[in-house]
What we know:
Layout: H1 2-20, E1 21-28, E2 34-42, E3 50-56, E4 60-66, E5 73-78, E6 99-103, E7 108-116, E8 119-125, H2 128-159, H3 163-190, H4 195-201, H5 206-213, H6 218-222, H7 224-233, E9 246-248, E10 254-256, E11 264-270, H8 275-291, E12 295-301, H9 306-315, E13 321-324, H10 329-333, E14 341-345, E15 351-356, H11 360-370
Parallel strand pairs: 1-7, 11-12, 12-13
Antiparallel strand pairs: 1-4, 2-3, 2-5, 5-6, 7-8, 9-10, 11-14, 14-15
Helix pairs in contact: 2-3, 3-4, 4-7
Amino acid sequence: MKPxxxxxxxxxxxxxxxxxxxxxxxxxxxxxxxxxxxFCLPMKMGETPIIDKIVCVDxxxxxxxxLVAPIVHLVRITSPKWNALNVNxxxxxxxxxxxxxxxxxxxxxxxxxxxxxNGIFCQVxxxxxxxxxxxxxxxxxxxxxxxxxxxxxxxxxxxxKDSLLVKxxxxxxxxxxxxxxxxxxxxxxxxxxxxxxxxxxxxxPMDSCRKYFDQLGPKAKSSYFGIYAQNALFAVNIGDQxxxxxxxxxxxxxxxxxxxxxxxxxxxxxxxxxxxCVKDIPTMKEYYKKYNSKVEFVSIxxxxxxxxxxxxxxxxxxxxxxxxxxxxxxxITYGIQGYPTKIIVNPEGLIMGKHLGEATDFYTELDRLFxx
Length: 372
């Protein structure tokens, strides 16, 4: 009897262990042999991302990962061969410039990807949210590739200092951004109960997010991304008192928001794992140099290990206040819906601006406030 029970217990442990493994396979059109970088980013603050290398053989990849936490993860797969899509298009962000999808512990994911000059068309199978997202990609991909094409032209014209062409590209980009927003809203209205509708909603401007959140159905609102959207949309906002916090700096000293009383403050929520965050550091450094006598810059690293965070501070010479956040409470309280997010707090402690991504309006607002 006892050996039989032991064998059953071992079998159950083996089955449970296998169930936690997540498998990713895929094919990349036009690729032969290459080494790719994979990021598995847990969609919860305080959890550590997994960063690894995977080998592509004859255009095929196979990867097994043991997720640290049983929660949704965002997977990003990148290659130096896609660097044509990784140029400085600030203040605009290239869309679909890498392979990305969502995984849960125990998933068996299969994808097909077709890299092109203006974006990567990817279809992912193995769980409902990716299969819903496939439909969104099919609908938006032609618009995104046109958007990316104009962003790349904008970067080229800006480097060439041709102001007339830059102005022309900006007009086209803004026009296509409106098309993207309208197409996204149309998709949400067509699929109100899909979880992916809650996820893509958060890519819209904040006023549109609030406007269309109530059009989500009960299933979408109660999903992971629906709850996330609700937390982000109805957390503290512009005009509210900035919530207090106390976090360690790189020397272990606890720093509180109240330490900067009666000053303007920029709170930047970022992470070393976030490509857009790292890409924005040079512009942050430029504006720190311009306005550090008038405003306190405070970068708050999220989902980071202490080692990676300290290495980044030194590598990028981030000479302002740097703090490490250890859990999800503070970003949720501040309504952080993506990275980087920059928040401007006035001397009275009130939030006067929230800016998501490499937002040009953030730097424009700093110029408006302090360039006098």
